[in-house]
Amino acid sequence: MALHHRCAHGDLTALSGVWRTQNFLKFSFPSAPFGCCVSHRKEVTNCYLYSTEVHVRHGELSPQAAVGDLSACSYADGSCTLADGSLLIWTPDTEEACKYIFVSRLTGYRWDTIWVSDDKEFALSWSNQSTTFWDCVKELTLTDQGYAVAISRRQPRGVPEDVGMVTSNQLAAQLLAVEGATYSSVSVFYRNALRLLCDRTSILSSAFHAALLTQPTITMRLLLDRQDISASYLGNGHVQVQRCVALSPVELIAFNTTCYSLPRVQIRLPSGSLLRAFMEQATGIIRRQASPLSCTEVSPIILHTAKSVRVE
């Protein structure tokens, strides 16, 4: 019916995207008095054929379509009779039963557990302990990146059992071929390793410059492993580093009518006089000035000590 557009009730004709037979109901009323008080029944049957799309989610048995409920159908059967008597036919896709689908066939070089494609755009890693399984009549290996690969294994056609002394240039040619193949593999490996090292160095340099721009003091303290310095970024890769002088314990002073971006402290100088200033929580550096803020916008102050102290 779907192939030849013909059914048991006649040939099908296309009309507005629907194939159907042209069987019309024809009847005539009997003349009086023969049609009185007698019921007459007449029926005609037509076939309809139209296309639709059948979808199925991976792992589910029943398909889905816009023509009706297919929960009682099996996608693998390729056909199903619906509740209204209509028949739905489709061709099952064999890849729907596969957990992994084919993406591409690639060639490249493998060094230990690392494989790199010839165009250097794709890399995978797996080892002899990686998970292997069968999927759609294929033996696949699960890589560390989540891909499944089918490894081509080439077996030699035959190996002579007895090998005698080589008196020609055959051995030299074989060794030269092995040397060339080894050189190509090793050169690709080192070239990719050098490129990876350069990329990591570039990322580290960018992160280091960003850290100097935002937090120069903390960055230089971690870099030099010294807590008695203060740093400022001058631009163009230049940093000014100054040595700090340790002070006696400071005393926190509460804000009155005006609040500031830094906590207010009172310091006793070696001369015995008292100095009121502001202190950075992260570095412990004393500043003479701080930006005034509305007291409703001031967040809680946290001082980094052996035991963090929160000041409301």
TrEMBL record:
Domain of life the protein comes from: Eukaryota
The protein's name in its UniProt record: Lipocln_cytosolic_FA-bd_dom domain-containing protein
